[in-house]
Design brief:
Blueprint lengths: L15 E6 L22 E4 L8 E5 L2 E4 L1 E16 L7 E15 L4 E2 L2
Parallel strand pairs: 1-6
Antiparallel strand pairs: 2-3, 3-4, 4-7, 5-6
Length: 113
């Protein structure tokens, strides 16, 4: 699972943010069965330089996508499952963070020239 930490404020810099893309991502691998992007850099995200505008810009390869910060309808927790080593074989869940906002990229990509 990709983890991207983008601080929304200096008060809580470890808030998680969901990146929502419309469409599909296809790799450049010759093997069509390998659709995993594990360990790969997806692209670069940067923000507008003005203090009143926090418009994100995502660059993937030769494509640029513009997005916006949108609150989630319902916040949700990101959990990590871990099993204990004792004889009880119990399962513990650790909260990694709370997702309250998402960056929505719904427009068609523009070519970077």
């Amino acid at each position: 699972m990709p983890q991207i930490y983008i601080p929304l404020s200096s008060r809580n810099p470890r808030d998680l943010v969901l990146l929502e893309l419309q469409g599909t991502l296809e790799g450049s691998s010759d093997d069509c069965s390998d659709t995993s992007f594990a360990g790969e850099a997806l692209g670069t995200i940067r923000f507008a330089d003005t203090p009143t505008d926090s418009t994100p810009e995502l660059i993937i390869g030769h494509h640029r996508l513009h997005g916006k910060l949108v609150p989630c309808a319902k916040p949700f927790a990101v959990l990590q499952k871990s099993s204990t080593t004792d004889a009880s074989l119990s399962t513990e869940w650790h909260v990694l963070g709370i997702v309250r906002h998402r960056y929505l990229f719904k427009s068609r990509p523009h070519n970077v020239v």
